[in-house]
Design a protein that fits this description.
Oligomer: single chain
Number of domains: 1
Helix content: 55-70%
Structural class: mainly alpha
Radius of gyration: 21 Å
Distance between the termini: 36 Å
Length: 386
């Protein structure tokens, strides 16, 4: 009877994922028509996270790329663009070469650029999940609450997740291409901390070399094409780290990490950093040990993707869409059993809890995904490879 009910539960979960994703789409349409999404009722751009991307791109087109890393200059440019001042700061924290993407988007009108960015990155994200584990994985990823956040504010979570998915998908068959995607992921270097550990432990030296050369080429291109912007970026890095991690300028509850959870609970900075260091070290050790083993690639890939989120203190809610990647690899290996369906529900509700209540349960979504992965690695599903 249990075996007969399993396909029904899977169909129900699949239908629910499609339903949730369509609800997100309907909400975005409604918000757009009522002046609560890309622009307000007067047609002025709303103060969302896509605003600094577009304005930084405009500055780059005008030969002012270095100014994008000056918070005050960027804020003045954003205020001028939308026609009014606003409290707080929306910064540009990415390497200079990523300004090329922003500049291309800035060639379009604001609304068109916003829609192109969201649709293109979400489509790439969904297509790669489908390549990993079929259409169900794509709908599952689009139904996760951070997917709605990425689409609503124009964030880059879809893009980051697509790079991670492409890297892991290509690694067994096209290591050079996989390495180049890993190099591109360095636009958000906090998510690539464990990639060298996995590649070295697993003996993926061609991918490791391609990634290293890709990062070197990226830095060299920045130094050659926009040396002032590279210098401004390097100068701004410690300021960004201090503002986000030391001062909590964006709010501790927004950090979906063990560090963010500890700080939002009132734990002191030194203790929070100590706890995060333990989590990072354990994540690195676990990845190194597992990637040395000759086991099925799917749970190894899932482990790297999930552990990479645990390893960084600098992760926001919208970045949690990356969790769709380990979940897709686990589904690629086999469909979820009853226990895993319960854990998957926990992952979803931990994410939804943040969206509804504004507290930081994102770290628990990461830990539940790691628990699913560890369960697979400890089971007979992790078959020894020849």
């Amino acid at each position: 009877m249990a075996k007969q009910n399993a396909p029904n539960r899977h169909r129900l979960a699949y239908a629910a994922a499609i339903g949730v994703a369509l609800i997100y789409g309907g909400l975005l349409l409604w918000f757009g028509l009522t002046g609560r999404w890309i622009t307000d009722a007067a047609g002025a751009p709303r103060v969302w996270d896509f605003l600094p991307v577009y304005v930084a791109g405009r500055m780059a087109l005008r030969g002012q790329a270095a100014g994008a890393y000056d918070l005050e200059a960027l804020h003045r440019a954003q205020s001028a663009f939308i026609g009014h001042d606003f409290p707080g700061f929306l910064g540009w924290h990415y390497p200079p070469l990523f300004l090329s993407v922003a500049a291309l988007l800035a060639l379009l009108p604001y609304t068109a650029a916003f829609l192109l960015w969201v649709i293109a990155t979400a489509s790439g994200f969904a297509a790669l999940l489908a390549r990993i584990a079929g259409g169900r994985a794509a709908w599952m990823g689009l139904a996760l609450p951070p997917a709605m956040a990425c689409a609503m504010i124009g964030q880059n979570g879809f893009f980051t997740a697509a790079l991670f998915a492409g890297f892991l998908l290509l690694l067994p068959s096209a290591p050079l291409a996989a390495g180049l995607l890993a190099a591109m992921l360095s636009y958000k270097p906090q998510f690539g901390l464990l990639i060298p550990v996995a590649l070295m432990a697993g003996g993926h030296w061609r991918a490791f070399t391609a990634a290293a050369l890709g990062v070197a080429a990226w830095i060299g291109a920045c130094a050659l094409i926009a040396p002032s912007a590279l210098a401004a970026f390097l100068h701004a890095l410690p300021q960004t780290a201090r503002a986000v991690l030391d001062e909590g300028s964006a709010g501790w509850f927004k950090l979906a990490s063990l560090f963010g959870l500890a700080r939002s609970a009132g734990v002191g900075a030194e203790t929070a950093w100590f706890l995060q260091a333990i989590a990072t070290a354990l994540a690195a050790l676990l990845v190194a040990l597992v990637w040395r083993r000759r086991v099925d690639f799917a749970p190894k890939a899932a482990l790297l993707a999930a552990a990479s989120l645990l390893a960084t203190p600098y992760i926001y809610f919208y970045d949690l869409v990356i969790l769709a990647v380990p979940l897709a690899f686990l589904w690629r290996q086999r469909s979820f059993d009853t226990v895993e369906q319960g854990l998957m529900a926990g992952v979803f509700f931990c994410m939804a809890g943040y969206a509804l209540a504004g507290y930081p349960p994102g770290i628990f979504a990461i830990l539940l995904t790691l628990a699913m992965t560890a369960r697979r690695l400890g089971s007979r599903d992790a078959k020894a490879m020849p």
